[in-house]
Amino acid sequence: MSLLRNHNHQMNEYMKIWDQCLKLIKENVTEQQFKTWFAPIVFESYSPESKTLLLQVPSPYVYEYLEQYYVGLLSKVLLRCFDANVKLTYRIVTDKTHNISQDVEAEEPSSIEPPRVPMRGGNKTPTTLDAAVPQDLNPQLDPRHTFSNFIEGDSNKLPRTVGLSIAEHPGKSTFNPFFVYGPSGCGKTHLINAIGVRCKEMYPHKRVLYVSARLFQVQFTDAVRQNKTNDFINFYQTIDVLIVDDIQEWMTATKTLDTFFHIFNHLFRNGKQIILASDRPPVDLQGMKDRLLTRFSCGLIAELEKPNVQLCIDILNSKCRRDGLKIPNDVIQFIAQTANGSVRDLEGVINALMAYSVVYNCNIDIRLAERVIKRAVKTDNHPLTIDDILEKVCDHYNVSQQNVFSRSRKRDYVIVRQVSMYFAQKYTKMPASRIGKLIGNRDHSTVIHSCTTIEQRLKVDKAFAEEVRSIENSFKLKS
Length: 479
Known about the structure:
- The protein is α/β, with parallel strands linked by helices.
- It has 20 helices and 9 strands.
- The protein has a 5-stranded parallel β-sheet, with helices on both faces. Strands 1-2-3-4 form a 4-stranded mixed β-sheet.
- 32% of the residues are buried.
């Protein structure tokens, strides 16, 4: 009995320490952020022997959000209040009805933290922990995709001009919604990102959000499963500029389309800007109801065509200038005339040329370009598989697939898993749940978290971006 009392006394003391952590956190976030993400956390236990703190969170979504945006803040708070090197473990409630939970060890805090936002509310001076707090809304935009490097040509002059006008006057023109379509690699994602980036530059306080159709559908499915559909709809109805990519993926998703219909109507009625991208025009989106297609068509529909030879030359020259590359004019001309007109493939050819030149210590000439063109431009005849991706990523990091499939949280294995999931989502048509099952039997939320982590790191870590590009080139150089 005395041992039990002593144990209970210790847990009460550690719970008080966690209360101190919460107090410190509260001084470093807004009241709404604290109520939403930290107040629901329940202290479970602390082991002084293993220095492990176990906290219960109410859902996988809360866990993912904490790990994505607050890992730095949590790390600094725990360091101040508990022992050094404390290990944080989450107990995630996955099924409230049957009281099913899952324990997951927290990620190591990244040296790359989300950008700061001003503190809100009151004049009190918080105890500053020099830890980033999240933006009210992360726009999920790629800062590399801007109008300044979206080269204009005959194939994109109208969409580019209209896109720039929308960015400078969102929701105030007749171009709402703006529906842009075209084949893969023609620059749709670049253009709609550029609109969002320019809009945020001119109107920093506007709520701009870029989201892929696939991610929107996954979020909606999660909201239905957690009985939070109203919260999901309410969130999207607060957006000022909503940018949705690859909406052709919704053609058979009836419930997702019905929900988006209500979100669309609310935003449109309130003068909010809607931007949609697809690989085909609205008339070819078979399976979508007329009531939605007519709304897609009531603003402006603009086609992005594959670039002609001259635009390909301009794009290649622009890339060479940006990256400080020196490639002979005849090679640029040859690539522009020979490649299939995909902007993505054009850049892949240039990256492959540079890789060959460095590895084999040879000059970049027509002969090398011919060799690269045959290997670097990916075609539908040889689709990339999960096995291809795992093989290349594991080889690059010198890690076995058996280690990747294990439950180990070793940093080297985690990076390989995350990079593999990122490439799988980028190059295959598989849903996140299927990707997770094939890469270590993880769930779809792990895949989404991994892809988001890699995408954010690519934006700010040049060395890591070069490393990922090197792996990507190995896919394209595959015979």
